[in-house]
Amino acid sequence: MQESVVTRFAPSPTGLLHIGGARTALFNYLFSKHYQGKFLLRIENTDLKRSTKEATNAIYEGLNWLGLTWDEEPVSQVSRRERHLEVAQLLMSNDMAYKCFCTPEELKIMRDKSISAGGFGGYNGKWRNVDASKHPPNMSPSIRLKTNNEGKTAIKDLIQGNVEVSNKEIDDMVLVRSDGTPTYMLAVAVDDHDMKITHVIRGDDHLTNTFRQIQIYQALGWKVPYFAHIPLIHGSDGKKLSKRHGALGVHSYKEDGILPQALNNYLLRLGWSHKDHEIINLKEAIDWFELKNVGKSPSRFDIDKLNHLNAHYISSSKNDELLKLITPILNDFLGFNIQIEVKKKVLLAMDNLKVRAKTLNELAEDARIYAYNVPITIEEKALTVLDQSTINMLNLTRNLLDQIADWTSEELEAAITSIVNENKVSFKEVAQPIRIAITGSLKSPSIHEVLANLGRDTSLERIDDFLRRYKTS
Ligand code: GLU
Question: What is the pTM of this model?
Fold first, then answer.
């Protein structure tokens, strides 16, 4: 690629940064970084009624969380209004745009007429060639582009291939509304030109806009950028993605304990592939990303795949990083802040914990057992398996465990195995009562591991407290 690449992400801050937007941002980011170019951010906030500060902040936060950092100050589209109007005036003075005095009622009739005659409902050019001397006084006009309505407008789309439309399908679009505000179509073309965007990569729902924006570029004699339209994301049932499919704002994946590396990897594979690689980190993605490897058909959103990738990224994260990430979640679950001793125990247990968790929330949930204080709450389900023989077995085990010199996972396992052998009982019959006593639940990583990580004092304290409370069941 000869010129230096500049891409942009141009969200409208009217709601959450949803995953479709995040994927568009990711593709723009990767493409620009692959070519050592720039990735810019433009907040398309011209719809003042629907654009909010909160949504703008959610976009910044979401992109930062994903590590998709933009170069240069974000551009606020609304702040460029004067420039958009200046370009409209330029088009007027070059006779490439004109004033239109149609009322909304007139336009509606025009549209209905066109549709009933089999047309697409476009503007019929009523004011295109009307001399200024015939313009009505005291009426605010809109400004329309003198569209080239002969021939075709073609795009060599870097994903979709050659796409063209007959110029008869493109009517004289409004550039400036009669209230004096520039339209989205004008603003986007002017901003992309002024920001020196070389590649416009966006959802294929913008394809029809692209033909119109190209006409604006051509009327101004500007160089048309490359375009790449990414197929949309569909739900697992093949229908347009919605909340029903679990397609939410990026922040909700964060809240659910998804790691940003996992979400990036997932979004990357949603419509893009490189050989048969499934696990791809951001650095590899930058090295490998090319638009020609983006598929042409819509991809399907699959939450299980995301969770699967997340489990991978959790299990390959460093233990101390995971501890940092789960500490606030753990504090929240427990209703108090965990102390350093608990953190040490969780760190010791992390190798075991992290291979079992699909999300950070699950990881924090599993780590809770290291933070409990006696008396431990015993789950309803666990209580139902208690009877006199389990209590007796726990008594016996407790006394033998107390004699262990070296409180390590290996010694503990050996001790439990010898109890199993000597008493001719199953492993479960020995392990389950201990598990209930020290975790309050029927499920946990290997019991000797948990005992080792808890330490002798805490383990015995929990067992003794349990036996005091459930002496006879
Ligand atoms: N603001 C538009 C949107 O959020 C995107 C415009 C563009 O990428 O050109 O859908």
Answer: 0.92
